[in-house]
Amino acid sequence: MTELRMQVTGARVRFGGTQALDGVDLAVYPGEVLALIGENGAGKSTLMKVLSGAVRPQEGSMLLDDQVYAPQNPREARERGVAMIYQELALAPSLSVYENIFLGVEATRNALLDKKQMRDRANTALLELGHKIDINTKVNSLSISDQQLVEIARASAASAKVLILDEPTSSITSKDVERLFTLIRKLKEQGQSIIYISHFLEELKEIADRYVILRDGKSVDSGLIKDVTKDDIVSKMIGRSLESLYPRSPHTTGETIVQVDNLTGLTKLKSASFSLNRGEVLGIFGLIGSGRTELLRAIFGLDQIKSGDLKVALYQGKFSPADRWHQGLGMVSEDRKGEGLLTALSIAQNLVLPVGLKETAHYLSPAKVKATTKRWIEDLSIKCQAPEQKIGDLSGGNQQKVALARLLNNSVDVLLLDEPTRGIDVGSKRQIYELIDKLALQNKAVLIISSYLPELLGTCDRIAVMSKGRLTKAKLVADVTEHDIMSEAIAVESDQSDGENDEAKH
User: Fold this and answer.
1) Are 84 and 91 in contact (CB under 8 A)?
2) For residue 499, what pLDDT is reported?
3) Contact 101, 120 (CB under 8 A)
4) Which of these, 21, 311, 333, 467, could form a disulfide with 13 (CB 3.0-4.6 Å)?
5) Could you read off the pLDDT of 318-333 as tens digits, one per residue?
6) Separation of alpha carbons 119 and 116, rounded Å
7) Residue 381, by phi and psi: left (phi above 0), alpha (psi -120 to 50) or beta?
8) How many whole angstroms from its chain centre is CA 182?
9) Four-residue CA torsion sign, 204, 206, 207, 212
């Protein structure tokens, strides 16, 4: 690799009083995968917006194939050959595959849409990527991995030279991860440059050639990925040594606070029985589509229960989420933006929202709200400008801390956490693990659902496995291995005739 495909020199971006980028340098070569690494808030998203034309830097310069590159908007960036594929895919769900591939750049003939040309070119783009999808199928009927493929085909059809992938594996199975990696290697062979953003350091070591680490808006390190260890990467990301990712203390288990017996839902939840005790962290591992989230939603009253018994402390029966709050249960959804937070509202508004279930609005004076929010910002080290800042402007890790603070502010006894560290950086993960450990020591009960086995083995006292809607008996973490749990998870799933969702996420 000698000739540069893209070069960024001294990029600076300021939003009001926040210096998002502070002199960032970056170089990308043809036919390589460059890993862009950093904590939430390190400047990765801002840099990607600069490269994709969504944000213009106040200082610095960029070159693309030795030509000045200064896109005014994302369309101009795509026309120059730079395509961004966001974690939350930007597709029109009601349109077909081929219509999405040419959305905004439709082919015309005699002032009319040339659908035949678009279909032919869409087919060619997909076949070149080594995949076959019916181009007339509506996107909303495709799996997440196939939707991702459509996005990549869209970039390929536009002759993208630089493809930016933002957390591309956060919501797909390990089988689909392998498909994606095969596709990325094919794109490399064709000379494309890939900028790959991920918090999964294991997959970066597998797929990337070089890396760049950002911290506090600055480029702090770069080099060949094979020459650096995961511990080195973490230390450079957070600016200090990380002795242990999973801080754990001996937990003293108390009385049973949640008892579930033969619980059945209306869809994927077939049968679940378990007890959750004060002072313990219980983990539930399951494959995508196994019914793990449906179990949590049923416990919290979001999904209807078909049969079975559910007892919370002294309460028994079917209740709404409002009732659950009153009983001391709180839930953090895996869908932060869709269900967990009101991103258009402030940090303070999100944090005190459930208090309205216990108190009428006139008790929540602005001064009390501000003081309460400041306390949680300090206690959980939430990086923000002020309690009034919109929560949608925070990094994923800090949004997750606000979601947890909302539960703690409501003095819940039971925390139901669905994928609590998805899409957040290593430093923030450790802070959340530390918080979970402290909550158990405070006699709280914590139930964690996760598709990332190392975090369950590192944080939980017991682990149960959800497989095809059925929950196994919980076992002590000391008595199981990662292999044991995975074998249990796929034992039933492998019998599914459709073969979908038969792998776990990393």
Assistant:
1) no
2) 39
3) no
4) 21
5) 678 888 888 889 898 8
6) 5
7) left
8) 22
9) positive
Q: Average pLDDT of the chain?
A: 84
Q: How confident is the model at residue 494 (pLDDT cuts 50, 70, 90)?
A: very low
Q: Are strands 162-166 and 193-197 parallel, antiparallel or unpaired?
A: parallel
Alpha helices in 129-238 (DSSP H): 144-157, 174-189, 201-207, 230-238
Tokens of 363: 């008790």
Whether the Cβ atoms of residue 500 and residue 143 lie closer than 8 Å to each other: yes
Q: Which residues pair with 390 in a beta bridge?
A: 346
398's tokens? 């800090």
Gap between the Cα atoms of 183 and 129, Å rounded: 6
Locate CATH 3.40.50.300 in the chain. 6-238, 254-328+414-421+445-506
Contact by Cβ (8 Å): 454, 252: no
∠ CA 44-349-383, rounded to 5°: 30
182 — alpha (psi -120 to 50), left (phi > 0) or beta?
alpha
Cβ distance 78 to 51 under 8 Å?
no
**Pairing of β 305-312 and β 256-265:** antiparallel
pLDDT at 316: 67
* 6-238: in CATH 3.30.870.10: no
Burial 469-505 (b: 16+ CB within 10 A, else e): bebbebeebeebeeeebbebbbebbeeeeeeebbbbb
Residue whose token pair is 């904590």: 39
Residue 357 near residue 323 (C-beta atoms within 8 A): no
pTM for this predicted structure: 0.63
Q: Which amino acid is at 294?
A: E
- Between strands 462-467 and 470-471, the pairing is antiparallel
